[in-house]
Amino acid sequence: MDVLGNYKSVISARSTDKDVLKKSQDGGIITTLFAYAFEEGIIDGAIVAGPSDEPWRPEPMVATTKAELLAAAGTRYTISPNLYLIKEATRSYGLDRVGIVGTPCQIQAVRKAQLYPIGMRDVDDKIALALGIYCMENLSYQALEAMVEDHCNQKMESVKKMDIGKGKFTVYTERGAVSQMPLKLIHKYVQPGCHVCLDYVANLADISSGSVGSPDGWSTVFVRSMKGNDVWDGAIKAGLFETKPMDQVKPGLDLVKKLATEKITKNQKNVDARKTVGLKADGTPKGLRNPYESP
Amino acid sequence: MAEKISIGELHLSGCTGCLVTLADNYEGLFKLLDDYADLAYALTLVDVRHVPEMDVCLVEGSCCLDDKLSVEELKEARAKSKVLVAYGACAAYGNITRFCRGGQWNQPGHESYVPISEVVDVDLYIPSCPPCPQEVRNVAVMAYLLLRGNDEQKKLATAYLTPLMQLAQRGNEACGCDLMYDVINQGLCMGCGTCAGTCPVRAITMEYGKPNVNRDLCIKCGACYSQCPRSWFNFDVMNNYEGIMDAIKGAMQ
Ligand SMILES: Cc1cc2nc3c(=O)[nH]c(=O)nc-3n(C[C@H](O)[C@H](O)[C@H](O)COP(=O)(O)OP(=O)(O)OC[C@H]3O[C@@H](n4cnc5c(N)ncnc54)[C@H](O)[C@@H]3O)c2cc1C
Ligand code: SF4
Ligand code: SF4
Ligand code: SF4
Fold first, then answer.
1. Do A292 and B235 touch (CB under 8 A)?
2. For the segment B188-239, what is each residue's pLDDT rounded down to a tens digit?
């Protein structure tokens, strides 16, 4: 399997909706696609990372209006357990067609829930659109707080946007300050679960998107499944995106491929190294669990 | 169409929720019975008194050691079926029957309820309370492909069923605690929220992105553990999700 997963097409794109672009992290792909899917009746609601009572701590939310989607737009570099609502969305919210956005691991969870619906009654055919966002690693809320407040010297509540790119973690404050820290310093804060992750660009999503590979303010979009293809074609026909061919943008697909390869190679090594973490009394290796081999 | 496989349900100490789950496939159940499987044995649904030979036997409920008939029937079902499935949480993990300690009308002397793997070898687990109709359907279609399909179908079915067989090898304990032991303590949890979303009794909440299990609420159904993408994940099957889902949908049309 290719590090970029199966896909039908890849393209650089940006939303044509100014309201979305004001709020979104990159090209506003996710918010625009969900808004379009509402309009067309492809989904009745979408599980997104909504606001919570603490600054920059996302809380999974079922959005059923464009205003709610806009409130949840942008990236929070900390865990938002979006799958928490997946069954609930079909119950308390009564949705028949659920949209969900998630990091690659969350999209893996969605597909496992569909293929092996062990505790996920009546969920499999109600997942109408699974959108993925690229992800190199994720952080606990406390780790994010330490980075913003200790390394970047900004209060969480004063931050307007956070961004990762060009080797730096950057925070922009409401009052116009910009603070940065080198990405290599965040490694000790990364949640351990990310060290065994073998997916960078949400290989199992219907459509997945991230900033890497495209110019600032634009996104690199992989259209992956039949369903993703239909939705993407419809959104393009409706004029919701400006697009550029991937081979005409900088830094281009090679960078995506490079980062994906780096992540997967490094993490595969971590998975393998777990086999020999300790030793038994007789000197044979005493390993940790490998979730990709057996329960 | 190849010959059908035979499926039975052996009812031990369970609440019949698992059997009802089978019926919750609605017209899907008719399709399964028309094309893929004969229902060889099932309390209340089939008029067969004694455990017959079967390809697949779904065992619902835990086994009460104080009930000789249960123990005997379970052993007989094991001997007479090619594939024995712990169907639902009571059979697989004991579920709420783990909390039984006798003194109940109308069998006050019945107090030792164990997951069926404590009495016989089990081939495959379908955990959760109740199990999901769609999972039973998927397993039924895959069992059909495994026993009656061509080489390619056998390969797919084996890949699909392997983790459920490995769950049976893993043991008969699973509850919210196992998430702690086998996922979080092992440095594998990434906070997706699946466990909390799947728990039928809402025993799990997500605190700052990580699961917190209220052990007093947990009924030991094993759903959280088996649904967690970090308890097991098979790329060969999952990467092919579109094809497999289409195939199952196609088989049910
Ligand atoms: C932890 C993390 C790491 C990332 N790493 C990379 C990377 O290495 N390279 C790269 O190109 N892109 C990365 N991204 C993705 C990128 O930041 C954007 O989310 C993506 O480009 C989508 O932008 P957009 O403008 O299209 O979407 P928007 O319209 O802004 O919508 C984003 C959607 O994502 C949801 N969301 C926000 N935070 C989370 C979260 N923590 N968990 C789940 N859902 C969330 C929002 O609710 C919203 O619906 C990362 C994202 C996260 C959360
Ligand atoms: S690195 Fe992998 S495990 Fe960690 S949040 Fe991102 S997709 Fe999930
Ligand atoms: S925590 Fe919930 S899902 Fe997990 S075993 Fe207990 S009851 Fe079942
Ligand atoms: S399902 Fe597994 S990986 Fe996801 S939050 Fe629960 S324990 Fe963590």
1. yes
2. 999 999 999 999 999 999 999 999 999 999 999 999 999 999 999 999 999 9
Task: Give the residue whose CA is nearest to atom 4 of ligand 2.
Answer: A194
Q: Where are the alpha helices (DSSP H) in chain A?
A: 18-23, 29-39, 66-72, 86-90, 104-115, 141-145, 226-237, 253-273
Q: Kind of pairing, strands A159-165 and A168-173? A: antiparallel
Interface predicted TM-score of the whole assembly (ipTM), two decimals? 0.97
With the most atoms of ligand 3 within 8 angstroms of its CB, the residue from B224, B225, B227 to mutate is: B224
The label of the residue with tokens 């030979």 reads B53
Please, are residues B77 and B55 in contact by the beta-carbon 8 Å criterion?
A: no
How far is the alpha carbon of B142 from chain A, nearest alpha carbon, in Å?
12
What's the Cα-to-Cα distance from B237 to each of A106, A260, B140, B146, B234, rounded to whole Å? 17, 21, 17, 15, 6
Listed as own residue / partner, the contacts of B29-36 with beta carbons closer than 8 Å and 24 or more positions apart are: B31/B252, B31/B253, B32/B137, B32/B140, B32/B141, B32/B252, B35/B1, B35/B4, B35/B251, B36/B4, B36/B5, B36/B140, B36/B141, B36/B144, B36/B251
Both tokens of residue B223?
């759903």
The shortest CB-CB distance from B193 to any of A84, A112, A142 is to: A84
Are A189 and A139 in contact by the 8 Å Cβ rule? The answer is yes
Question: Which ligand approaches the C-alpha of residue B200 most closely?
Answer: 3
